[in-house]
Amino acid sequence: SRPAYFVGPWDLHRDLACVPASPSDGTVVFVESIAKSRALPYHRKKLVLVLSAMRHFAEELRAEGFDVSIIRAGTYVEGITEHVTAKGSSELIAMMPREQGLQQALLAAQANNIFGVPVVLHDDGGEGGHFLLTREEVSAWMRERKVIRMHHFYAWMRKRTGYLMEDGKPAGGKYSFDSDNRKPPSDARPEAAKGHAPDAITRAAMREVAGWDGFFGDVDGFDWPVTRKDALRELEDFFETRAERFGPFQDAMITDEPYLWHTRIAAAMNLSLLSPREVCERVARAHREGVMPLSSAEGLLRQILGWREFIRGVYWHRMPDMRSANLLKAKRPLPQLYWEPESTDLRCLQQSAGQVRDTGYAHHIQRLMVLGNFALLIGVAPIELSHWFWAAFVDAYEWVQLPNVHGMALFADDTFTTKPYAASGSYIHKMSDYCKDCRYNVKKRTGEDACPFNSLFWRFMAQHRERLSKNPRLRMLYRTWDKFGDDEQHAIQTQAQAFLDTLEPATHDWTFNDDQC
Ligand code: SF4
Description:
Elements: E1 4-6, E2 27-33, H1 34-37, H2 44-63, E3 68-73, H3 76-87, E4 92-95, H4 100-111, E5 119-122, H5 135-143, H6 150-161, E6 165-166, E7 169-170, H7 200-210, H8 228-241, H9 243-246, H10 266-269, H11 276-288, H12 294-318, H13 347-359, H14 364-378, H15 382-392, H16 398-409, H17 425-431, H18 452-463, H19 465-468, H20 475-500
Parallel strand pairs: 1-2, 1-4, 2-3, 4-5
Antiparallel strand pairs: 6-7
Helix pairs in contact: 2-7, 5-12, 6-12, 11-12, 12-16, 13-14, 14-18, 15-16, 18-20
This protein binds iron/sulfur cluster.
C-alpha cells in the first residue's frame, strides 16, 4: 500500500510537498466539496476558476501516469476518507491548509483518527511550501515585535532575500517608492490584457456553474488563467505590455478599465499556479534588463514579497479573534448595492462594484478607497464586508481578505494600522475619472447634489473623534471640523443621515458559513 496525497484546491503546483514526485510514490486525490461550494454565495467566475484549475491540474498529472481521483463529496474530509479507504492507503500526505476552516477540519479528523491512517501535514511555506516564509518564521517575526508594521517586515524581507538590493542597501537608496507611484489618470491606456479563451474543461465547468442557483455574477466572458502555462503567459503578457507603467499608475482608476496596468496574476498565484518566489525573481530580472523602472519593480515586489507574505502572517497571528474584531463597533448591514451595483447612482461605487460583478476583480485602490472606504464611512459590520470580499473576488480567500478588510479597510483590528483609511470624495476625484460623469458634485458637502462621500466622511470623523483625535496625523483635520461651526456641522450631519436612510440592506437569503468545508 502507498500513501495518498491530498491536493487542496489552492495547492496546484508540482513543487509543493502534497504532490508526489513520481507516479510510484502514491495516489493523488482532489475533492470537490459540496459544503465548501455552498459556504458563501461565491462569484460564479470564481467557482469556474477553482473547478477548472483543479481539473486541469488533475488531467496534467493523469497524463503523466499518476493515479488521480477527483471525488465530489459532502465535505473535504469525507472525500479524502473515501479515497484513503478505497485505495487502502498507508498514510495521508497534505499541506497545512491556508484557511482556518479546512485546517481545523483536517486537524480534528487527524486527532479523531477519521482517516484511519497516519497524517503528515507539510508547512505551506518554505521548502516544499508555497509562501517564502514558513508559518513559524513569520509568526516568530510578529511575536517578537511590540508593533507590527508592514514597512519593517518588508525591509526585513528585502534584506533576507536580496531582491532589489545593492551591497546590502535597497536599490535607489530607499525601500519604498510608493510616493512616486500615485499618478492620477491621464489619457494613456495600456494595451488590453490578452486573456485566456476557455478550453473544453473550462467550458464544461462554465456550463455546470451557470446552472447553480443563488450565486453572484455570471460565467460569461470568463478569461482567467486556469493552468500554470496560462498563468506564465499572463505574467509575460504583463511584462511585455504593462510592466513599465505599473508603478506610477497603480493607484489610478479609469471608467470601464478594470485592469489598467495591473498584473492579473493574483487569482493564479493564490491557487499556486505561480510561486511568489518566481514572480519576485522575474520582477528583479525585468528591472535588471531595463524593462521595468525601479519605481514599478519595487511597487510590484512590495505587493508580493511584502504585503502578501505579511497579510498571511497577520491572519494566523490574529486568528480566530480577527473574525469578530470590531474596534469601531460598526453594525450596519452591507447595502444591497454591493450585490447589485446598478442600484446605486454613486458613479465610483457603480463602476467598482460593477467591475467586481462582471469580472470578479477590482484593483487595490478600488477595493480600499472606494468599496472599503464607503463601508467604513457608513459603518458596515466588518464581517459583512469581509464575507462579500471573500465571495465576490476571484482571488479572495479568508487568509487574504480578512486582514485586508478588518485590518486595513475597516480599521476593525489595529494590529498593523494606526488610523483608518477614511477619505472624502476629493481623493476619488483626484485618482479617478469617475466624478465627471456622476450625478453628484464632488466639491459640495451639502445640498441635493452634494457628493455623499463628503458628508459621510465628516460624520465618520465626528463620530469617532474620541479615539481618532489622539492620532497626531488627524489633529489638523479636527481643527478644520471645529472651524466649520455649529450650523455647517449640523447641515453635514443631516445630509449624511438623509443619505444613510436611503440605503437598502442586502436582501440575499444566504447563511454565511466561515468554517464550512
Ligand atoms: Fe463618487 Fe462622489 Fe465622485 Fe460621485 S462625485 S463619483 S459619489 S466621489
